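Lesson 9: reading folded outputs for more than one chain in a single document. The general rule is that every protein is listed as its sequence immediately followed by its structure tokens, and records are never interleaved. Here is the first one.
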Amino acid sequence: MSTTPTTIIPIEDTSLTGFYKDMSVPEKRTFWACATGWTLDGMDFMIYPLVIGTIIQLWKVDAGTAGLAGTVTLLASALGGWGAGYLADRIGRVRTLQLTIIWFSFFSLLCAFAQNFDQLLICRALLGLGFGGEWAAGAVLMGETIRAQYRGRAVGSVQSGWAVGWGLAVLAQAALFSYLPPEQAWRWMFAIGALPALLVLYLRAYVKEPEVAAQTRAKVAAKGESPSILEIFQGPILKVTVLASLVSMGCQGGYYAITFWVPRFLTTERKLSIVSSTGYLAALIVGSFAGYLVGAWYADRFGRRNLFLVFSLGAIAVVAAYTQLPLSNEVLWVLGFPLGFFASGYFSGMGAFLTELYPTRLRGSGQGFCYNFGRGMGALFPFLVGYLSQTTTLANAICIFAVIAYLVFFAAAYALPETRGKVLHADA
């Protein structure tokens, strides 16, 4: 395998929106395709946490078992993400993205027809395979299509689509649960999750394979070789893989410990109804959206690594206050904004960071494995929070596991190098 010298370019224009006006048509098409994908991805995932209370009541399952469905979805998404990353190195980023979107849209629709919890568990697990694969393929596609000087802000801005999708899921919940009985409303929530399949039509028509990826696959094919999925565990790349996997585990474990159980925390320990809790979730979502945009700017202005260090400490402070202080509901509503801000904003740097850590021929495999190893390990947190909440308060359980996750995130990020401004090259 040949090596290519690392090229770092200075980032002169660091304004939040300055990148967009200078992007080419292919860059803009990829940007909007992936932004829409992230939006619908976020909507699909957040549907289950929003209906978990209804599932518990209708099918008489305990909190730990209900949390298991979230954990199984994320564990399956870890396998799907690693597999899709490897597939993206073999058949291309765009084609892999199309396959994963169709897959998770189909199984979201099947969730709407589940007749018991076991069937729902199986459908959520199969959905997870495509859910994880969509991020892996989309993140590499974005990272390789967007130029180095804009990569952090573009990929980070796309990540903000997750908050939009979360918001759409909350709005759908408020509307459906207002006009339909719970035993029907939750099914319509999952049916809406099939909408991402429509995005494939746009991908097929307008989004092309990144040139650096196409060139690398051509070079590899000319040599009669194919990248091995095990190369990310060999030589100096092994250290990168281990540390990047821990970064991914910490950031996602903290996020899932918070966002998966906060809706349940509001309706049980805070005694809010599903509809009245919508305003509290709205504050969290608006803070999340702002966090993604600020994080995108921060990643290009001060670096990906610095973003992780600052936001992980901020998340620890806010989640501790949100769950441990004797706050009124009014103050809790206000605190939802900084909680969403710090518990989400660091994701804006993840896609660009993982893209820049690996050579092109291994980028799909490396990025897909690290992020989805983190997702798989982070998948344990919804289950562990639910399990621990049977012996202590849900607030305590959320705080304990979120703080543990963010400490791992901080330590691993501190041990990795800064990658801001790195130019990607074709290699073989």
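And here is the second record, again sequence then tokens.
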Amino acid sequence: MNSRARRLTIPLTGVLMIAGVIGATTGANAGTAPKDVVSSQASETANQATSFWSPERMRKATDATGDLDLSVKGGKASNAAGPDGPGGSVPPIGAEGAKSSKSKQVNLPNTVGRVFFTLPGANPADPKSWKYCSGSSVQGKYRNVVATSAHCVYDVKTNQFYDNWIFIPSYWDGNQAWDGKNPYGIYAAKWFNAHDDFVVKEDYDYDYAFVNVHSGFKVNWEKDKDGKWKPIIKTVGRLGDNVGGQGFAWNQKVKNSVFSFGYPAGLHPDGDKPYSGRTMKWCYGTTGAMPAAPKYNVQEHIGFKCAFTAGASGGPWIYKYKSSSRTGYLIGVNSIAWDTDKNDRYDKISSPYFNSDTYKVYKTAANRWTS
């Protein structure tokens, strides 16, 4: 840690924001996206992206924390977050037939998992380019949508979307030589959908993205005679059919009780590392308005007490979560970690407030078909 700089807020993946206006990246047929929505096709096929992530690469993937000098010190809560139109919601899927039962424990949602990707323009064989985030399956017409943070799909250093992007719901790594699990399959990106204000202006009030994924592959890894990992792949169908999808809600109250889920693994500013990233973790709290953070163009974030560190980025905030069905309504995503009491320990997380702009990006993804 640089002792001259107190790091009070940091994007949970630690991706450094670069100032300046950049051109939006679009892919073929991206013209179908409405104004303010940037859609881009993934660079790889589903087979290429899935096969890229060997057990060794998943194990060695890291958060891009870096040595950041961030000067945001919090302050008085901003009153900018709030509805910009009528509220609305889309119900979750996957709760069909679920028994209504009470439980004292929190049943972790099958929809939440880890996101893996490589840095654009980097040598994909270089371990320094292997990165991760968190994400969640969310309801969509074609059951193919993953919600995450925009900085988990788009690299503001190179102004490009990430490469070799995959999502593994209910990811679990048992910390053996290799027993990482993909119990419901691996789902590779087909389309990235983000807001123009994040892509062009790097405005973290729009730090959310919705990724359309291909149908999944179940992957088992075996070593060949030369000791190299070899994937044995079979198709498993659509993401939403296999794990369900959280509902989606926008223009809700600023103050709500929510669960946040994710795979934190990074360090606190004081160097402590309480999480491994190998298993899913959760926080629970009541949201409220957060201070402005000019370094990230933040005016409209909401947050609550939670000690998540890097790696949790993109994990869902779920409103009205039911442990019996493991479903609720996506109302935010892990975006920025805060040290509000200035003791070099993150104590709050924040998310962009989900308003009509968020719904516009979500709706684009929710109605986009993939193979």
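What the second record shows: The longest strand covers residues 130-138.
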